[in-house]
Design a protein that fits this description.
Number of helices: 18
Strand content: 15-25%
Structural class: alpha/beta
Shape: globular
Radius of gyration: 26 Å
Distance between the termini: 9 Å
CATH topology of the largest domain: Glutamine Phosphoribosylpyrophosphate, subunit 1, domain 1
Mean pLDDT: 92
Strand order of the largest sheet: 3-2-4-1-10-9-11-15
Bound molecules: 5-amino-5-deoxy-1-O-phosphono-D-mannitol
Low-confidence stretches: 141-146
CATH architecture of the largest domain: 4-Layer Sandwich
């Protein structure tokens, strides 16, 4: 993870670096640092904590300069303190790194033997030392004209020796006219200005200074100057990557009238769902253009689906929960078998690839390292087709996949995923219909009914959001609670998992999601009058069974909160929150919303940093 920003201009660039870091905090925020070169002198400032702490320290020191790099960290190797914060300086080399150098111990040993000592516990400092080593031991620049080339050779030589993942930016006190960059497994984009250029982990860091971007491909390395950008591919051949004009309204990065990004994103869901559905539905089927082929010669996706006999889905976290819902939906309505695996598990286990399988990845960011690695593996394993359901156009996942469904949720900034999840569910509902129609499991009449319920989804979610005040009121019951159970059955089981994840990640209350039929096999032992039990109970096939499980909780004095779609009798032991009649097809999506609101309000009462919960980062770009 971690966020990188770099700038090379003819003006002081500290403000650009710090503003860029602030919007990159979604990538990690346990420590931050910045380095600028001013007339050949390096000023490196590092602090533990969020970028605001760094900003105050920079202000106190009053440093600035026309070239610099900056970093916001999510700790992998070494504690989240000032020493381990980036940039790391070894002699003339100053480096920021996002990723993991897997063979850093081995390299550290070799460099220690050569006389290098290390201040930090990080793998990144070892890379800085390795670049320094090759510059000073192997290659001696013999003229100022050759300085870039010789130094770049050393940079390359060091990277060739590294195993692992990296997005790196390096400045050099002896060469204040260039930033060296490289990307392998971690995103990096160059921002192009007039007489100035920039680099960052994500375009959003550079939106205030440019709208022109060059996306580095995996394996690319390059030299950024003020007036030029030279990039070399993984074979070290000079390449011309296209400059793309990207117009993003910086206002979308604001919170508007909301207190937190998460709250704003919860309330944006009706619009996000509407956008995700727009132009993708016909009368009784999904439109042919809903799933987009990345290659011109690729077949129409709806045609491809006719030959699909199995679906394999891989994702992490909330996206994994969406995939689990997808399994219930596709198996139920389309009669196609679906396997769902957590990406970090998938990539290290043996997988049997059934013939004519579709490999589906789900990711908000499209940069989750485990999901990318799983897709890479699937491509080698010979899956017939790959589909990415993703919220970020131009992300690594999108670029690597054969077919793409962009979820159009809009930028999601809160670490806890909300609108990305419900729009992923829309994507899966569309995939279900498309598969069901392709395999004649859903006829025209049923197709039209399912499409009609999809059209209702934004309005139904809008209505459910009106429960906000009621949910806020009941969230005070959770003060002082340390545990909570979420129960659901069928497609609501993954929704229970998602409700539990939301609560634990932002309020720090330990929460578990269970398929309610599983209660009697162990978790029922936890139930007493102190344990809040949240039940997701729409009116569907599974409701009678779920009601029996609710009785089991009541009988043991559990404190019940039931989100229901049908009034099945009030009782003193239960707080009922009625969502009204909801079509079972869209119920997973609709019943997620009150659980997001509950987690949000409990976190606010608990006084946590809702948008930046401890130890987390929005994009997990390391293994
Ligand atoms: O960007 P991705 O969807 O691939 O991210 C996957 C998970 O890291 C993410 O969903 C995470 O679990 C969220 N913090 C959940 O709210």
């Amino acid at each position: 993870m971690c966020g990188i920003v770099g700038a090379l201009a003819q003006r002081p660039i500290m403000a650009v670096l710090l503003e860029g870091l602030k919007v990159l905090e979604y990538r990690g925020y346990d420590s931050a640092g910045v380095a600028v070169l001013d007339h050949g002198t390096a000023h490196v400032v590092k602090t533990a904590g969020k970028v605001a702490v760094l900003e105050a320290e920079v202000k106190a020191q009053g440093c600035d300069g026309p070239i610099g790099i900056a970093h916001t960290r999510w700790a992998t190797h070494g504690k989240a303190n000032e020493v381990n914060a980036h940039p790391h300086q070894v002699g003339n080399i100053i480096l920021v790194h996002n990723g993991i150098i897997e063979n850093y111990q081995e390299l550290k040993h070799k460099l220690s033997f050569e006389g290098y000592t290390f201040k930090s516990e990080t793998d990144s400092e070892v890379l800085a030392a390795l670049i320094h080593y090759y510059q000073h031991r192997e290659l001696k620049p013999d003229s100022s004209l050759k300085i870039h080339t010789s130094k770049f050779n050393a940079f390359n030589q060091a990277l060739n020796e590294v195993k692992g993942t990296y997005g790196v930016a390096v400045i050099d006190t002896e060469n204040p006219d260039a930033i060296f960059v490289a990307r392998s497994g971690s995103p990096l984009v160059v921002g192009c200005g007039i007489g100035e250029n920039f680099v960052a982990s994500d375009i959003i860091a550079l939106l205030p200074v440019t709208s022109k971007f060059i996306y580095l491909e995996d394996g690319d390395r390059g030299i950024i100057g003020r007036d030029h950008v030279m990039l070399f591919d993984r074979d070290q051949v000079l390449v011309n990557r296209p400059v793309q004009s990207i117009q993003v309204n910086p206002e979308i990065l604001g919170k508007g009238p909301y207190k937190h990004y998460m709250q704003k994103e919860i309330f944006e869901q009706p619009e996000a769902l509407r956008n995700t559905l727009m132009g993708r539905l016909d009368e009784d089927n999904v439109s042919a253009n809903a799933f987009v082929a990345q290659e011109e010669q690729a077949h129409d996706f709806l045609e491809v689906l006719k030959h699909i006999e199995h679906v394999e889905m891989v994702a992490c976290g909330t996206s994994y929960h969406a995939a689990l819902v997808g399994k219930y939906l596709i198996e139920e309505h389309a009669g196609i078998s679906v396997n769902v695996t957590i990406a970090s598990e998938y990539r290290y286990k043996r997988t049997i690839v059934p013939p004519n399988s579709l490999f589906v990845t789900l990711s908000q960011s499209g940069e989750t390292a485990d999901t990318l690695a799983a897709l890479e593996l699937a491509q080698r394993q010979g899956y017939r087709h790959t589909l990415a359901i993703c919220n970020v156009d131009n992300s690594s996942l999108v670029r690597m996949s054969q077919y793409v469904f962009l979820t159009r949720a809009g930028r999601e900034i809160g670490v806890a995923s909300t609108k990305a999840f419900t729009t992923q569910l829309i994507a899966l509902l569309l995939l279900t219909i498309a598969l069901g129609r392709a395999h004649h499991e859903i006829d025209e009449h049923e197709g039209a009914n399912l499409i009609a319920s999809l059209h209702q989804a934004p309005a139904v979610v809008h209505t459910v959001l009106q429960l906000d005040a009621k949910i806020q009121e009941l969230s005070s019951d959770f003060v002082g609670k340390e545990h909570a159970l979420f129960l659901g059955r069928g497609p609501m089981y993954p929704i229970a998992l998602e409700g539990a994840l939301k609560l634990k990640e932002i309020s720090y209350i330990h929460a578990e999601g269970y398929a309610s039929g599983e209660l009697k096999h162990g978790p029922i032992a936890l139930i007493d009058s102190k344990m809040p039990v949240i039940v997701v109970a729409p009116d569907n096939l599974w409701l009678p069974k779920l009601i029996s499980n609710i009785e089991e909780v009541k009988a043991r004095g559990g404190k019940l909160y039931i989100f229901s779609g049908k009034n099945f009798g009030h009782s003193a032991e239960a707080t009922m929150i009625d969502l009204g009649t909801v079509s079972p097809f869209i119920a997973p999506l609709v019943f997620t919303v009150p659980l997001q609101l509950l987690a949000y309000h409990v976190a606010v009462i608990n006084g946590t940093d809702v948008d930046h919960p401890r130890n987390l980062a929005k994009s997990v770009t390391v293994e």
